[in-house]
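Researcher: I'm preparing a figure for a lab meeting and need a structural model of a single chain. I don't have an experimental structure, so a prediction will have to do for now. The sequence is pasted below. Please return the structure as tokens so I can convert it later.
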Amino acid sequence: MKQITTKLKNKNATATSADKGNSIVTLPIQQYKQKIQNFINNSFQTNTNPKKTFQGQIRKTINSTTLIGPDSRWKYKNLNPTKPTIRRLIKLHKTDQPIRPIVNWQNAPAYKLVKLLTEKIQHFSQLPYTYNIRNTAQ
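Model: Understood. Here is the structure written out token by token.
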């Protein structure tokens, strides 16, 4: 492993997982960064960092809602939010080999609140699972 990482570093390349299958993809770091930048530019508008204002809006919403009791509001406030992290998998089965992003939202400002609201919606509106099956016999 040490020899492989040394060769990758010397050749200015990186290794990452492929999207489908159990394989590893090696490609130049510059190409890897370009794929990430293309994805971000085509998918998002990133002009400013709205984290502080968004965090303030979330705190204000949590404090003013009646869905959450005053004694448990602290559970749904993320005290130290960070931006979501992204893992990138290369799609080998597509032309131009774009990336598939996997985003970890657990440290995002609204994660705990969204999780609570999802549970409340599922509790109050019990939708039938017409297209889901419980086991292979069904």
